[in-house]
Design brief:
By secondary structure, the chain is an alpha/beta fold. The protein is built from 10 helices and 15 strands. Helix 5 packs parallel to helix 6. It is globular, with a radius of gyration of 20 Å.
Length: 322
């Protein structure tokens, strides 16, 4: 016998969370639970506002259709909606014992909150790796901040993410305030410019490596070896099933690019599964999963060392059950 439940959740976010120039107060999504004679498996379905093509309502509708067929004994095809396909594939992988238990619990430290606390945390690490969102303020200010951090912490490596905020002129302004000798410790800058052509020109003119994220989801041909491109950022919730994530990781590795598994503001349950996925598919590469620091609670599963309160199944809203 098979049974399934779809739960809804809402998690309060810190006041400073901004998605595509809009302040976001809470994260909403769904958790799916599959049960069979083999045991149970969980997954998270959480479209990211302003980034996912599907809404929460559309995802719920598609998930219920898939779950209804699965409970009836069928093996339905993957959902065309990436968030649904990923969440269900995680639940199936857990149910069938295919998702390894070991996780990569390292993460690039997200630079947010109190600057002094951040500096102390970075200083305490032997080989600190941090991520900074740039493009929210003036490009000159961003360049000065990056330069200051790299000067102050000689072992620090930075990943930067501009979310296509800059024109080429603004991006070059940023680079002018980062000393040439320090630029090699910028692992990559995600999506510096508004267009692919401008981003490539930025890499060529500054020597700062770039990474594709949303551009790759819009144009699959960008998954190719290109001068100045070092990495591809893969957000499973925006990509699709575990199988599709595997395919993209393997393609990047064949091309000599670094695939980085990254979060799309999932709950602790989704993040722990992505840590396991990262350990399995991209061993040796630190994933970008340090987003629990933006949340006020965890769901069902605890991230190692995280002290946020943990909510159990009884606190979730049942949306559908069979």
């Amino acid at each position: 016998m098979r049974s399934a439940t779809l739960f809804g959740y809402q998690i309060a976010l810190d006041a400073g969370v901004i998605l595509r120039d809009r302040r976001v107060k809470s994260r909403e999504g769904m958790l799916v639970r599959l049960v069979s004679e083999r045991g149970e498996g969980w997954g998270e379905i959480a479209p990211l506002p302003h980034f996912s093509t599907e809404t929460n309502g559309q995802s719920q509708q598609q998930a219920v259709k898939w779950l209804d067929r699965w409970c009836a004994g069928e093996q339905p095809p993957e959902s065309p909606l990436p968030s649904v396909a990923f969440g269900i594939s995680c639940a199936l992988a857990e149910l069938e014992g295919q998702l390894p238990a070991e996780g990569n619990w390292q993460s690039a430290l997200l630079c947010s909150g109190d600057p002094d606390e951040l500096f102390n945390r970075l200083q305490s690490q032997p080989a600190p790796l941090a991520k900074i969102k740039v493009g929210l303020y003036e490009a000159v200010r961003d360049g000065m901040q990056v330069n200051l951090l790299l000067e102050a912490l000689p072992n620090l490596t930075l990943r930067l993410d501009a979310n296509r905020s800059w024109t080429l002129e603004k991006a070059l302004q940023f680079a002018r305030y980062v000393s040439t000798e320090l630029r090699g410790r910028i692992a990559f800058l995600e999506e510096p410019c508004r267009t692919v052509v401008e981003s490539k020109a930025f890499a060529r003119q500054t020597g700062i490596a770039i990474a594709w994220d949303e551009s790759l989801r819009e144009d699959a041909s960008l998954l190719s070896a290109q001068p100045g491109v070092r990495a591809v950022v893969i957000k499973p919730t925006l990509t699709g099933s575990i199988h599709k994530v595997q395919q993209k990781v393997a393609a990047a590795q064949r091309l000599g690019l670094i695939p980085v598994i990254s979060s799309a503001l999932e709950s602790s349950l989704g993040l722990t599964q992505m840590a396991r996925l990262a350990q399995w598919l991209t061993p040796g590469t630190v994933p970008g999963l340090d987003t629990l620091s933006l949340m006020q609670q965890q769901l069902l599963r605890q991230w190692p060392g995280c002290t946020l309160p943990l909510s159990g199944m009884e606190e979730l809203q049942c949306l559908w059950q069979q």
